[in-house]
Amino acid sequence: MRKEQLRADDQLQLTREQLYANVSHIIVSHICEAQRLIPVPTEGAKLFHEYNFMPHQWTIETANGYSSTMPLFHFYFEKVDYEEMHPEVEDVMRFIRGVMDQMQLTTECVVIGLIYLEKVMLTGKIEIRDFNWKPLVFTATLLASKFWEDIIWYNVDFVENLQIYSLKSINRMESEFLSLCDYNIYVSAEKYEQYQAQVRSISFPNEQVHRHCRRHSSDLQPTNAAQATSSAATSLMNRIKRATSFGSWREGTALTTQ
């Protein structure tokens, strides 16, 4: 019996890249569900809008006429608008890989980060969307590294090594995330094993996630914004409780973050 269990465990071993892929599929599936169920983003989701934390970009424009002979009087700055794009699985994988590899974090941080991500979805009632998945994934990974790693990286280390967000932005993201988690980021061994087993055992072909997103993209018709936001947010939280983590893809495998 023990040999059979060990053999089964060996068959479920994942490479680092496979782990990134599975977790990325889970995140994208959550984004698809939020887009389908909530036509208007909730205030909680807007709290982690990437525009609030990313360095603002500007372009330098010159006016016609005397710009070549009198440049000091004809330069002006124009802020670059934030472009919201739906992430593909490869985009999420690339982002997770960049953080993990640059900070030299162990693979356990990916699983713990997923636990934190779904915990903030449940306790903070925040949906993951196209415009906030990067700050949420980043903060979840940062907190996972502080919980798991023997050598603790400080926030300033993430600034210097990754150069994605400023120290002020990271401190703000961490503070908001912890508050929404009720300052409880403890992960029991049982909870970790539960998530790890699920992540190892699933298989997410890319086209499965894409079909899921396309199939539900037109299900929800526009309604009154306030009413739609309230009812859809409640539906999403109920859906997450049933589907977390990836129960909507594999029936009977739902997890519940306490």
CATH topology-level name: Cyclin A, domain 1
Distance between the termini: 32 Å
- Overall geometry comes to globular
Q: How much helix is in the residues?
A: 55-70%
Order of strands, main sheet, comes to 1-2
Number of domains: 1
Order of helices and strands: HHHEEHHHHHHHH
Q: Give the biggest sheet.
A: 2 strands, antiparallel
Based on the structure given, which CATH architecture is correct?
Orthogonal Bundle
Q: What fraction of the residues are assigned to beta strands by DSSP? A: under 5%
Number of strands: 2
Helical run tally? 11
CATH homology group: Cyclin-like
Compute the average pLDDT: 75
Which class best fits the helix and strand makeup?
mainly alpha
Q: Class in CATH?
A: Mainly Alpha
Over all CA atoms, what is the radius of gyration?
21 Å
The stretches of 5 or more residues where confidence is low (pLDDT under 50) are: 5-11, 206-212, 214-230, 245-258
Organism: Favella ehrenbergii
Pfam families: Cyclin
GO molecular function: protein kinase binding
Protein name: Cyclin N-terminal domain-containing protein
Q: What descriptors fit this protein?
A:
258 residues; mainly alpha; Cyclin A, domain 1; two-stranded antiparallel ribbon; disordered C terminus; Cyclin-like_sf; Cyclin_PHO80-like; protein kinase binding; Cyclin N-terminal domain-containing protein
Describe this structure in words.
By secondary structure, the protein is mostly helical. It has 11 helices and 2 strands, in the order αααββαααααααα. It has one domain: Cyclin-like (Cyclin A, domain 1, Orthogonal Bundle). Strands 1-2 form a two-stranded antiparallel ribbon. The relative contact order is 0.18. The model is unreliable at 5-11, 206-212, 214-230 and 245-258 (pLDDT under 50). It comes from Favella ehrenbergii. This is Cyclin N-terminal domain-containing protein. InterPro entries: Cyclin-like_sf, Cyclin_PHO80-like. Pfam families: Cyclin.
